[in-house]
Amino acid sequence: TGFGKEAPVGVVYVKDNKVIVGAGHGNNYHLRNGCKRKKLGIPSGQNYELCPGCDYASHAEPKAIAKAQKNNLDIKDSDAYLFGQWWCCKPCSDKMIKAESKDS
Predict the structure, then answer these.
(1) What is the DSSP letter of 53?
(2) Greater pLDDT, 92 or 100
(3) Which pTM value belongs to this model?
(4) Residues 6 or more apart from 72 whose CB is under 8 A from it?
């Protein structure tokens, strides 16, 4: 599924009661190497860019947005449903707002 074993986190975009696109977090870095941020004692939610497994590029939200754009799927006016956690980080939130506000 691509949602990972360590922390299954994902997002789906829903519009008119239909799933448009979805994606999961992960790239298996943590399974192979552990978390660099944890090893460095960095608190949760900070400095994601220091760990390839935590980097924003592996977050579910931008992965779903990229997937939608690649497949010409319109996510404007859709609802995003997160699972595995109840919030998204600021960079992902900003990407979601920007992607959903684009005129098609």
Answers:
(1) T
(2) 92
(3) 0.77
(4) none
